[in-house]
Prior knowledge:
146 residues; 5-stranded parallel beta sheet; 5 strands
Amino acid sequence: MTDVATIGFTQTTAKGFFERLRSAGVRSVIDVRLHNTSQLAGFAKADDLAFFLGEIGGMTYRHEPLLAPSDDILKAFKRDKGDWRVYETSFLALMAERRIEARLRPEQLDGACLLCSEAAPHHCHRRLVCEYLNRKWDGQLRVRHL
């Protein structure tokens, strides 16, 4: 069984964010945002985040755009004023087209935490990534949403 977590960085403080990662025993953070230089939270910009993760928690950082939605999907979601069903269907099709399950291995996610911006996983693609991979990998992932 592979343990993987997910986390969002909005609606939290830097202190709360890093404490949740540390207390969960996360060893690496995999950034699944398409654009990882967001202004939403200063501590979540790619270079700053990599520094803070290493200094505060001894964790590594990796940006993985393979697990991010395309710009077209993001733009359509904003244009359609947040129709989650359309977004979900489009993103699941994109993951299948990319064959992410063949380009990653479960052990690459062991001890990792998928990072995105949404505070809760319900309407966030990081949850969809985990669910998709779990279906393709016969339930090998044990997922915790932090």
